């Protein structure tokens, strides 16, 4: 984050040379054969420094690394002054330089100075009925975190409460959600850091219209609308009482905000005690990140291994593959977390980078992905590093845990198949003599496809908190190495500005001016065919 080009570091150059000379020889099958202790060397059990019951195992032995390569990768982190920048973040220095802000989501997990009271339960609607539905209206960081965590921690949910999340400006999203709601028993949580986001404000206004069509009296809005924001003025202008506003601060980045008041829907859905456990789990990981030597620092290890593939192997993407249905939104969440943080081509110092920065993050819950895109992961032409994530115990041990054993057998098998593959010789033996050459070749798995495995005892609020913070700090570490500002998001602005201009030109064809022929042609086609 010094803003220097990473490619100028001596360790970067050394890594490039190492890659050039060694990569053809970095074969997982051989690396495992040469060293029977490879697993114990390249795996680490995380034990929460504040709670010994929160643990998970990170196995990074199925990576195309040797100890000297890993040592050089860690030296790269040191040369980029990771430890200094990490300490600056925790100290509240303004490391978000373009916006001149501190980055202090970690302070929110130091929850002694942070309290949000439980808002539902005793909260009554305008006709005196209890609230049984919450609708969080927000987008980006004001949506994805609450969605991912409420899904992830569903087994802890209060069963008498339904939570919906509306994000898309597409009227279908709010319309379909409102069909499921009773205005007398629904609490709308308007979540927006800025309270100026077009999608959120438009959806909130439509929700308010829908509510008032039933409740009639504007005074009832106070019982059914609360706001989570940093912008008191805009909240009150919308008509939400200041007393119904849960505030937070500009040093909480949108994609790091589920720990703040933005987490209200989570706290209501799973109860405040469980929300506090989530924060504590993240706090434990913060402590680990802050205090553990880089050699054993899990987010740092994940980060530097990611840099190895991203910048030297030329991998374009990174897959997140949770073998846990509850985590089916995990990849969606970290698409924003990672890609909005590290999808930058300019360093903090304003230089164009001459290397790759943030990877494309994608993924789906196992085993669904296996029946969809794993063909390419196993036999395609691209190298796709992947994280396999699973709980040892399921919250739903139905059929004597038969489902879970089958799920986990796949969780263990896929990384094994990716790493070790299947040789031509093995295929030939299996098919016998008559098999065509083409068939033999098509059944070969080259292997040597790397992955990490993360295995934890049971999905608890505390474990999920630790896992999220693990990835947050991985993203931070990579941003420091690449010299970019991981905490602004200038790249989302241009499209917004153009959309605003186009919105004012949608009436008739003669209004459409100042565009290229493609954009003009598309708008004209829309104007010809719309029925409103
Ligand atoms: O919370 P809000 O101010 O409504 O912002 C919602 C989202 O807006 C933009 O898309 C930003 O790029 C995101 O980082 C942010 O999370």
UniProtKB/TrEMBL annotation:
In which pathway does this enzyme or protein participate? Answer: Carbohydrate degradation; glycolysis; D-glyceraldehyde 3-phosphate and glycerone phosphate from D-glucose: step 2/4
What InterPro entries does the record tag this protein with?
G6P_Isomerase, G6P_Isomerase_C, Phosphoglucose_isomerase_CS, SIS_dom_sf, SIS_PGI_1, SIS_PGI_2
CDD domains, alphabetized: SIS_PGI_1, SIS_PGI_2
According to UniProt, the reaction catalysed is: alpha-D-glucose 6-phosphate = beta-D-fructose 6-phosphate
Q: Is Isomerase among this UniProt entry's keywords?
A: yes
What are the EC numbers? 5.3.1.9
Q: Which GO terms describe its molecular function?
A: carbohydrate derivative binding; glucose-6-phosphate isomerase activity; monosaccharide binding
Q: Name one GO cellular component term.
A: cytosol
Keyword flag Isomerase: yes
Q: Which PROSITE patterns match?
A: P_GLUCOSE_ISOMERASE_1, P_GLUCOSE_ISOMERASE_2, P_GLUCOSE_ISOMERASE_3
UniProt keyword annotations, A-Z: Gluconeogenesis, Glycolysis, Isomerase
Question: Which GO terms are recorded in the biological process aspect for this UniProt protein?
Answer: gluconeogenesis; glucose 6-phosphate metabolic process; glycolytic process
Q: Which Gene3D superfamilies does this one have?
A: 1.10.1390.10, Glucose-6-phosphate isomerase like protein, domain 1 (3.40.50.10490)
Q: What class of enzyme is it?
A: isomerase
Function summary:
In the cytoplasm, catalyzes the conversion of glucose-6-phosphate to fructose-6-phosphate, the second step in glycolysis, and the reverse reaction during gluconeogenesis.
Family statement: Belongs to the GPI family.
NCBIfam families in UniProt? PRK00179.1
Q: What is this protein called?
A: Glucose-6-phosphate isomerase
Its source organism is Suillus subaureus
């Amino acid at each position: 984050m010094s803003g220097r080009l990473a490619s100028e570091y001596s360790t970067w150059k050394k890594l490039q040379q190492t890659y050039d000379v060694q990569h053809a020889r970095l074969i997982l099958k051989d690396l495992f054969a040469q060293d029977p202790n490879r697993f114990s060397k390249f795996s680490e059990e995380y034990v929460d420094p504040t709670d010994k019951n929160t643990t998970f195992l990170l196995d990074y032995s199925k990576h195309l690394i040797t100890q000297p390569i890993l040592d050089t990768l860690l030296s790269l982190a040191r040369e980029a002054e990771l430890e200094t920048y990490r300490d600056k973040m925790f100290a509240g220095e303004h490391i978000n330089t373009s916006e001149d802000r501190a980055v202090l989501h970690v302070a929110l997990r130091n929850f002694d100075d942070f309290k949000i009271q439980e808002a539902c339960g005793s909260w009554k609607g305008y006709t005196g009925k209890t609230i049984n539905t919450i609708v969080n209206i927000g987008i980006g960081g004001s949506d994805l975190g609450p969605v991912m965590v409420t899904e992830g921690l569903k087994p802890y949910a209060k069963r008498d409460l339904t939570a919906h999340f509306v994000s898309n400006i597409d009227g279908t999203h709010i319309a379909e959600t409102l069909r499921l709601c009773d205005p007398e028993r629904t609490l709308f949580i308007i979540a927006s850091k800025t309270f100026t986001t077009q999608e959120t404000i438009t959806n909130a206004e439509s929700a308010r219209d829908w509510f008032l069509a039933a409740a009639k009296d504007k005074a009832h809005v106070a019982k059914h609308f609360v706001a989570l924001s940093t912008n008191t003025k805009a909240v009150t202008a919308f008509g939400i009482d200041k007393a119904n506003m849960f505030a937070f601060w500009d040093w909480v980045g949108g994609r790091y905000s589920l720990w703040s008041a933005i987490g209200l829907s989570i706290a209501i859905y799973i109860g405040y005690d469980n929300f506090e456990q989530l924060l504590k789990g993240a706090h434990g990981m913060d402590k680990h990140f802050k205090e553990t030597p880089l050699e054993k620092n899990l987010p740092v290890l994940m980060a530097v291994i990611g840099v190895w593939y991203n910048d030297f192997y030329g991998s374009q993407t990174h897959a997140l593959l949770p073998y846990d249905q509850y985590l089916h939104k995990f990849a969606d969440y970290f698409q924003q977390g990672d890609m909005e943080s590290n999808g930058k081509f300019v360093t903090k110092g304003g230089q164009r980078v001459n290397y790759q920065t943030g990877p494309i993050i994608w993924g789906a819950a196992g085993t669904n992905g296996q029946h969809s895109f794993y063909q390419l992961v196993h036999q395609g032409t691209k190298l796709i590093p992947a994280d396999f994530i699973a709980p040892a115990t399921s919250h739903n041990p139905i059929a004597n845990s038969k489902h879970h054993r089958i799920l986990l057998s796949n969780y263990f098998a896929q990384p094994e198949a990716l790493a070790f593959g299947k040789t031509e010789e093995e295929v030939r033996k299996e098919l016998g003599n008559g098999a065509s050459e083409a068939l033999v070749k098509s059944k070969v798995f080259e292997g040597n496809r790397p992955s990490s495995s993360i295995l934890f005892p049971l999905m608890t609020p505390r474990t999920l908190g630790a896992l999220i913070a693990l990835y947050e700090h991985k993203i931070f570490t990579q941003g420091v190495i690449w010299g970019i500002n991981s905490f602004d998001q200038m790249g989302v602005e241009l499209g917004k500005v153009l959309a605003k201009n186009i919105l004012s030109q949608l009436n008739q064809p003669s209004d459409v001016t100042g565009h290229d022929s493609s954009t003009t042609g598309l708008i004209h086609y829309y104007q010809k065919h719309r029925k409103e």
